[in-house]
Amino acid sequence: MTATMIKEFRLPDLGEGLTESEILSWKVAVGDTVTLNQVIAEVETAKAVVELPSPFAGTVAALHEQPGTVVEVGKPIVSFEVDDAGSSNGGGAPAVVDRSAVEASVKGAPTAGGTEAVGAPAKREPNLVGYGAVVEHSGRPTRRARGQVQDVKSVTPEAAAIAEPVVARQAEADVERPRSTPPVRKLARDLGLDLQLVPGTGPGGLITREDVQNFSGAVEAPAELAPVAAELGERETRTAIKGVRKFTAAAMVQSAFTAPHVTEFLTVDVTATMELLARLKGNRAFEGYKLTPLTIAAKAVLVALRNSPTLNSRWDESSQEIVQFNYVNLGIAAATPRGLTVPNIKDAHRMTLRELSTALTELTDTARAGKTSPAELSGGTISITNIGVFGIDAGTPILNPGEAAIVALGAVRKAPWVVNDELAVRQVMSLSLSFDHRLVDGEQGSRFLADLGAILSDPAMVMTMI
Amino acid sequence: MLTDQAGKGVHQDTPGPGQSAQNPLRTGGNLLQLVSPEGERISHPEFDVWVKDIGDEQLCSLYEDMTVIRRIDAEATALQRQGELALWPPLLGQEASQIGSSRSLRDDDFVFPSYRESGVAYVRGAHLTEIARVWRGNASYGWDPQRINLATPQIIIGSQSLHATGYAMGVQLDGANTAVLAYFGDGATSEGDVNEAMVFAASYQAPVVFFCQNNHWAISEPVRIQSHVQLADRPTGFGIPSIRVDGNDVLAVMAATRVALDRARKGGGPTFIEAVTYRMGPHTTADDPTRYRDPIELEDWAAKDPILRLRKLLEAKGLLTDDVEARVKAKADAVAAELRSSCIDMQDPQPLDVFNHVYSTPNSWIERQKDHYSRYLNSFNQPVEEGAL
């Protein structure tokens, strides 16, 4: 039998000057045979999510850290059993330690830093690349309390009983910002969570990704529902939140909780618009152009904006300014294979109906093919979402982040309608308008919606607006 | 559609006034290509002659070099993830640009690279340990520049273009017929250094080639934001002729580089080459491109992979035999293993090594500092030794 030895792989500094990383997942299990450079784990640093390739060929002897743990640079994360003679690394850098010591540290105390190589903090050790990094104990200076610690006892007993951990956390929070990493802070922000409320389980009370996710789950699912959910475990499909879904979620949360939304509805008789569409379709000048209620509605939005420019503006929080756009980049919400995207038509205000028709066709074709470029997705000033194509009448659309208004077009359907005091069958459509109440008052929003409705019920009304 | 589709600065099929195909200082058309992404040889009336000596054997040899440097890149990236290198700037996707240009150089030509030209260093004859040691943090330089006529890589963006121009002006004063080549990226063309270098190169008609690898990303800044004209139209404003070449086409890169080097040697002055390529990996191992780059863009460029393209050409010519494949694989494996062992077994520098090579001759002030530092270190009761450097 060939002699084997145990080699440890310590977490390296994966960026430039990082002190820790979070283990996201292990790609191998204890007992697995791995080849050199085989991916063994996925870790997240403050800068990036990276894959760790195995530095050895051998067998995985121990995984020292659980996924979700934030590990300090220099801590052993995996032990490999490698062929003594066949080790290609010779006097390689990752520390070679006595096997019994590793076993002791694995079985024994949870602090895996107990091996000789890592211990002895008193002695100054070189910590360059290739030496096998030394554990960096947090690397941050200890902060001193800035103010008086809040008196926890002053909280009413009932409140304290219900929210004890929260209150305790808040007391600490007055002393120091909760410790976490930038990606985790971002996650909390995206989820709309206050990090000060999240208990940290990492080293030194550090809040890990798992902590945030657990806390978020706890907030969303009341305790009494938990057993039911567990029972249904196998009947659920769990999909990682990433890509467009993650982006959409973040954008929606940001928008919904930043801009105070007001939504107004107006149902209008669009028979005249439908007749206009029919006439235009028969017109030679429009041959080959795709004309739909959306085309006319888009044009109507552009015309109505002339009287209500505040709906085409942006709240610039950082510079404390309101940005009034003197152009319109018209966003169109599109369902694509990759999820919801809102590409926009640049300078739509300058377009004739035919140009607008071409732009809309191109935009939807590009979006459906999944080829929309980032440039087409940014810089929108107002948006339209055509929920009518799904047979829906009205809704309360959420603003595309940074925009002041969004119009939802309902389905066009035949309905009884009062014309000249008599009931008639007319083509009717509902319009829903959400706007950012910081920028747009009820008067302006209502006037815009009324103008839009006026154009769609009588396109000749355009004459009075341009 | 040609190789690039990434935005205004790189993609103008309808050239503006004084630009692109209508620019009298541009040769080779909108994008010089001798091998299509499908691996078909495209004949070109003007540039074919510059690669007519590239026979079957040389094609296989170019393929070998490109495969080997991709392997060096992959191994070095893994070594960084394993804590054996502090940092690594990947060259993945730029193999044709680096091999096509460096294989066009003569030994006595002098090259001034940026930090990403590890493939060029390999071709110039740098040892693998010399390539690795700077990135391991063991030395402040990799190789002896005079031995392989390759300057030490510049981290400062674009500064080497000034060094190259100065060296080329020296060549002129010597009356030599060597040429000088500076490598830099698309981002560097926005820097003052590169623009100043072009002013001097044009004024003195210095024998220098500005070889710009437009890999489309200056870290997270896309080239389309940096330049509203094709990069090959920037030097012509200085009166420097330019060629815009498909940087994933090794033959076209060779042809363009040879034209430029020949012009330099014959007293024709500087040339600017824009090699249109793509950085398939991160800016460095400390970067996460998924945060700013559309994955679809990466897929589009993967279809134009420089090695894949050359493979298709070799296959069509019946040159990609089992023998060739086995030989190339063995070479790449051996190089990767040597890189790994030379990196891991590298002798660590000692504290006093920092004083070496500051001056080429003895210097009393440095000696004094060295003595002081040595006594300071001794106060910790640590052994003080001089290491390998």
UniProtKB/TrEMBL annotation, chain A:
Signal peptide: none annotated. InterPro entries: 2-oxoA_DH_lipoyl-BS (IPR003016), 2-oxoacid_DH_actylTfrase (IPR001078), 2-oxoacid_DH_E2_comp (IPR050743), Biotin_lipoyl (IPR000089), CAT-like_dom_sf (IPR023213), E3-bd_dom_sf (IPR036625), PSBD (IPR004167), Single_hybrid_motif (IPR011053). GO terms for cellular component: cytoplasm. Its cofactor is (R)-lipoate. It comes from Paenarthrobacter nitroguajacolicus (Arthrobacter nitroguajacolicus). Residues 179-216 form the Peripheral subunit-binding (PSBD) domain. It comes from the Bacteria. Residues 6-81 form the Lipoyl-binding domain. This is Dihydrolipoamide acetyltransferase component of pyruvate dehydrogenase complex. Its EC number is 2.3.1.-. Keywords: Acyltransferase, Lipoyl, Transferase. Belongs to the 2-oxoacid dehydrogenase family. GO terms for molecular function: acetyltransferase activity; lipoic acid binding. The lineage of its organism: Bacteria, Bacillati, Actinomycetota, Actinomycetes, Micrococcales.
From TrEMBL, chain B:
Gene3D superfamilies: 3.40.50.970. Its cofactor is thiamine diphosphate. This is Pyruvate dehydrogenase (Acetyl-transferring) E1 component subunit alpha. The gene is pdhA. Residues 1-30 are annotated as: Disordered. InterPro entries: Alpha-ketoacid_DH_E1_comp, DH_E1, PdhA/BkdA, THDP-binding. Keywords: Oxidoreductase, Pyruvate, Thiamine pyrophosphate. Residues 65-334 form the Dehydrogenase E1 component domain. GO terms for biological process: branched-chain amino acid catabolic process. One of its GO terms (molecular function) is oxidoreductase activity, acting on the aldehyde or oxo group of donors, disulfide as acceptor.
